[in-house]
Amino acid sequence: MQKITKVGAGTLFGSMVFLFFLVVFQNIMEIPAWLAVAGRMHPMFLHFPIVLLLLSFFTVWIPNGKSAADQWLNLLRLSAALSASITAIMGMLLSFEDGRSGETLELHKWGGVIVAVLGYLFYAYSPQLSRYILFTRSFTVIATAAIIFTGHWGADLTHGSDYVLAPINGNQQHIVPPDQAIIFADVIQPILEKKCAGCHGESSTKGKLKLSDLKSVLAGGKSGALFIPGNPDTSLLIHRIHLPLEDKKRMPPASKPQLTETEAAVLYDWIKSGAAAEVKLFSLPATDSFRILATAYLTPGGENTAAAEPVYSFEAADEKKIIAVNNNYRVVVPLGKNSPALVANVYGRNVYTSKSLEELLPLKEQIVELNLARMPVKDDDMKVIQQMPNLRRLNLNYTDITDNGIALLSNVKSLREVALSGTATTANALEKILPLPDLSSIYIWDTKIDSTALQRLRTKFPKLVIESGFVDNGAEIMALSAPVIKPAAGIFEKDIQAEIKHPFKGVEIRYTTDGSEPDSVNSPVYAAPFAITKNTVVKARAFKPGWYGSNAAQSSFIHRSMKPDSVILITPTDAKYKPTSEKALTDGEIGSFDNVANGDWYGYQKDDAEYYMLFNKPAAVKSVTVIAAKNIGRYLFPPEVVEVWGGADQKNLKLLGTIEPKPAQKGELSEHLQLQVAFPSTEVQCLKIIAKHLRTIPAWHGGKGQAGWIFVSEVVLD
Fold first, then answer.
1. d(CA 493, CA 476)
2. 570 near 612, Cβ under 8 Å?
3. Which of 30, 224, 381, 564 might form a disulfide with 632, Cβ 3.0–4.6 angstroms?
């Protein structure tokens, strides 16, 4: 017994020394992986010291004469003190690795240290304490209180600040009527508080992200901005909540209550609609998808009263069939957790063929949503879509479909929503599909259907929502949508005319051509189309009295005077981000952020991006522009440096020019980077372009210490 006690006492003293070492140097320490594993055992181990300490405290409240039992009581106190010290050490290690911060974490951390110290004192000075029974019992009361408070703070960290009282407070959430609801305070914030506050609330700010108020939500966290208004598909928030459950970056983690299908949809549509915050929900147009979804969410019988998810009569698809159709250009995912319904998204305009659609037919029974927006879809492709008996939502925005193809949709009896914006559809074609029994809404922005025909259709089909744009009747105060710049951003060889439009009457459009942000006072007013003759970044905003100014629309125009005769990739791309042909590097198509694996991007992390561009005859070149991606939430960083070499052949090259792009900063939004290297006009037959990827991601980012990705879409020669 004495030998065990002696070894235990020495171990206890050593653990206390190590604990104080961690406390003193916690702000500058980085721990190895094996210690991180020990830290993660903290939640499992912490019950031992609680039980042992309370048992040892209890012994001083019962009569006890001198006996052989004193040795066992001494061993109990030693075990309690040692387990408290080890648990405190584990907790300190976990705090280094977990990435959390906040007042509650600090209180829990210091509470754990204090409990460990009190346990050590109770063991080390038990002979002296036994002489003063009143003082000793007071000591145990104080120590017990420290255990209770420390455990309470730990529960707040793990489960959220209202975890203990949740059973009696759970039904007290105040549901605001939709017509009175403020968008962020009454729709978005309750979702964040319910599903995210456990890790990102007032009590804990994991990843330096706090979601307890609007200012903090807009500020983002360690990995940058949470979302890009109007662009949910490239927003970090949406990306994280749709990661697989087993992914460690999934939010909420698999161990926490998950967002429901409706809650996730509310967040997605909120960002898609522009992420308006401090305005009323009903200030949005009546046909706005976020307004419709949020109204249902706030209405009794909706999400807040546990309404049932849609019930489908068909069986779930074989998982192997789903895996077989998924690739870089086509993504099929379940509509919701445990739902047999599937959503199919098709990407990559350059690689789309009718076969891309036909290959979805093994899942034709389960597909309820199909997104073909901006694909070169032809009328004959509707014959494939006709074979999907449960298709409810179909997005054909800005496709090549004509009236003949639209007429074929009259055979898809399950359709509820069809998007035809930007197509050549006419009123005559619409009349063939509007009688569909379940059809409830159709979107025809930017089509050739005039107001007279539109009014006739609305009169004939009064129960349908036919959305053609918003009409300003002066009754609502809200933010204007951004203007539309035509042509869209791109690469041009001959001078072009830029035109800026807005669907609302009486709107004043202010714009800039130097990349600066336009304002309502100093920026020029748009009056007529203007010429683009060189590399230009056009930004435009809409203003109108009584309305909030719009977000800025942006289009980047890049001049190209030549194309190489051939391109050679010196370094291979990552296998997941490899275009189908080297020609994609000079095809004049700038990659989209909707899906970075769509064939328009060259992705590198292990190697720098290096290319040869060869000419059959000497060509005079004066600049090279590399179009790259910046999306810090997805680890896409600007290159550290871009170099351009030129000469008669690959063995005789000299450095023509170099630039060092501005490093990415915390909180920056996603954007296409135009990295232009200019130099005196030089006659060459071979160019070598090198874009060096970021070697080490900075400490403010969640991926600190790793290598950054570099994504290149296009190389433009002038």
1. 44
2. yes
3. 224
SS3 content of the chain, % helix, strand, coil (to 5): 35, 20, 40
Domain that holds residue 107: 2-159
Q: Please give the structure tokens belonging to residue 29.
A: 């320490």
Kindly state whether residues 287 and 332 are assigned to the same domain: no
Backbone angles phi, psi at 340, to 5 degrees: -80, -15
**424: its two tokens:** 């050549």
Domain at 442, CATH number: 3.80.10.10
Q: E strand or H helix at 3, and its extent? A: helix 2-24
DSSP SS3 for 126: helix
Polymer length of the chain: 718
| Residue pointed to by tokens 């967040």 | 267
Looking at the DSSP bridge assignments, the partners of residue 603 are 711
Q: Is the peptide bond before 487 cis (omega within 30 degrees of 0)?
A: yes
Sign of torsion over alpha carbons 99, 103, 109, 110: positive
How far, in Å, CA of 269 to CA of 191, rounded?
A: 14
- Residue 698 and residue 704 in contact, taking contact as beta carbons nearer than 8 Å: yes
pLDDT tens, 387-443? 999 999 998 988 899 999 999 999 999 999 998 888 888 888 889 999 999 898 888
> Would you call 317 helix, strand, or coil by DSSP?
coil
Q: How many domains does the chain have?
A: 5
What CA dihedral angle connects 94, 95, 96 and 99, to 10 degrees? 110
pLDDT score, position 501: 86
Q: Which residue type sits at 662?
A: K
Residue-wise pLDDT for 233-277, tens only, equals 667 777 777 666 666 677 777 666 677 767 887 888 888 777 887
